[in-house]
Amino acid sequence: MAANNVIEAITQVAGSPSLIRGNLARFRIDPTTGGLLCHIVAGGGGGGGGAVSIADGQDFTQGAQGDTSATSDTGTFSLVALTKRQLEHLTSILTVDEDILLELQGLRSVIGDTDDSAAATDTATASQVALFKRLLQRITVLINQDVTNGTAAILPAIARVAGATSSNVSNPKWRGAHFIIEVTAAAGSPSVTFEIQARNAASGNYYRMLVSEPILTTGTHILKIYPGIPPSPNRVSSDILPAVFRVVTTHVNGDSITYSVDAMGVV
């Protein structure tokens, strides 16, 4: 068969899909061997040829749906397997974050918010903030009780012809006091003694701490009670002022005398 006839015959064969699967883009006769040289275009869409192999660096594998999750971040795995590993990491992060959030919420419930009200009692179920506010309230009460020097009116300035007893005076933590007796008027020959009495809290009875000399004339007279100072009869007592005290006056006769008694406390 002439060469042209061979080419023509091969062309006819090439055009027959029943004999040749694939696409013959071009062909020629090797002049040396007489063999048929064909160039086949791969990927004919339904041909029976195998997958085209491409060198590393130019190829990637999408993977199959059933690919298991990658076991490392840098191993040789399909894109599907690596994606599954990434999803697992995200799930782990979300789980950890949720645990942390729950821990923080629990911690917040214990510590409390800045606007928590002070705890109602010392043993109330309350946040740390609420309990701390109650503690501050208790400290404030103690501070307010620890008063400085001050004064207290014991007997008002009025004319009297008989003895008088003051009300109980609660001592706001004074260690001692000056008792100031102001006599502003006297008719006839009055004579009055002033006695400072302490109250026994257990029995309710009173006992003497200091009694003055008889006061006969107008003027200012001072009685002193304070621990550690030099005592003086009828004037100064080296003693501690009790929690509750009072002043009692005794008149020798019925002559009118006007006086008042005040206390100046000393801490």
General description of the model:
The chain is of the alpha+beta class and 267 residues long. It folds into three domains: 3-41, no CATH class; 112-145, no CATH class; 150-266, Jelly Rolls (Sandwich), CATH 2.60.120.1110. Helices cover 24% and strands 29% of the residues. The protein is built from three helices and eleven strands; from the N terminus they run αββααβββββββββ. It has helices spanning 3-14, 79-111, 128-145, and strands at 23-29, 36-41, 150-160, 169-170, 176-186, 192-199, 206-211, 219-225, 236-237, 244-251, 257-266. The strands form three sheets. A five-stranded mixed sheet has the order 3-11-5-8-9, with no helix packed on it. A hairpin with a 6-residue loop joins β6 and β7. The chain is rod-shaped.
